[in-house]
Amino acid sequence: MMNILSYINNDIVPISPNLTVNMVCETFDGHTFTHMPVVEDGYLLGNISEDDIKGCDEEKLVKDYQYALDAFFVRKDTNWIDVLEAFAQNNANIMPVIDDDNVYVGYYELIDIVGLFKETPFLNEPGGILIIEKGSQDYSFSEISQIVESDNGKLLGAFISEIRDEVTQITLKVGNIGLNTVMQTFRRYNYNVVSGNDDDIYLEDLKERSNYLKKFLNI
């Protein structure tokens, strides 16, 4: 399991609920964050978004708009892929971290967590990207892995890249072999092969093929 605790950041002082809206706007102007954590007595109250704060009365305090805070965070023991998912779900590029006692300990930046993903075998190891889809009730990752390995392939990574109309799309990275054989096997198991690209696949190619990862990179 990848340890991401060293990426917890405290460079930005969290927002106090007693600050004026104008002061918070000035803080946003000096950074590129989508949100800022609001902390009182060491506890996270929520996150104020740049879009929301700029529509507020500049003379009022943050606590006057506490109802507008976005309630998202991760814990210190949250694994990196769940942290990445939390970024995507909340359209944020900053993610507060709290401990087991719900005390605020810092924040992750999206660019750091995406950088971790770039270091995984999914992107680093040579192989081919294969995108397949099947009914949401009809596929299983154990079957997918078995299909790849039955053709002497090596499954370097897999994630769900889209779900629509009861159909799930899965993006795979396959090493050791060319994709033609494994593509034919997937078709025999009634998977629809959306696309397959042989040889080495790097980040820019993955960005073009995966709306899921694009969401992380383009926030």
SSE inventory with pairings:
Blueprint: H1 21-29, E1 35-40, E2 43-49, H2 50-53, E3 74-75, H3 80-89, E4 94-98, E5 104-109, H4 110-118, H5 121-124, E6 128-135, H6 141-150, E7 154-164, E8 167-175, H7 179-188, E9 192-197, H8 203-209, H9 211-217
Parallel strand pairs: 3-4
Antiparallel strand pairs: 1-2, 4-5, 6-8, 6-9, 7-8
What would you say this structure looks like, in words?
With 219 residues, the chain is α+β, with helices and mostly antiparallel strands. Helix content is 32%, strand content 27%. It is built from nine helices and nine strands. It has helices at residues 21-29, 50-53, 80-89, 110-118, 121-124, 141-150, 179-188, 203-209, 211-217; strands spanning 35-40, 43-49, 74-75, 94-98, 104-109, 128-135, 154-164, 167-175, 192-197. It has a four-stranded antiparallel sheet, sandwiched between helices. Strands 3-4-5 form a three-stranded mixed sheet. Helix 3 (80-89) crosses helix 4 (110-118) and helix 8 (203-209) crosses helix 9 (211-217). It is elongated, with a radius of gyration of 21 Å.
Give a nutshell description of this structure.
This protein is α+β, with helices and mostly antiparallel strands.
How much β-strand is present in the residues? 25-35%
Question: Shape from CA axes?
Answer: elongated
Task: Write the H/E string, N to C.
Answer: HEEHEHEEHHEHEEHEHH
Strand order of the largest sheet: 7-8-6-9
- Round the Cα radius of gyration to an integer and report it: 21 Å
Structural class: alpha+beta
Query: What is the arithmetic mean of pLDDT?
Result: 86
Count of β-strands: 9
Q: Note the main sheet.
A: 4 strands, antiparallel
What is the percent of helical residues?
25-40%
Unreliable stretches (pLDDT < 50, length at least 5) are 198-204
Tally of helical runs:
9
Q: Whole-Å distance between the termini?
A: 26 Å
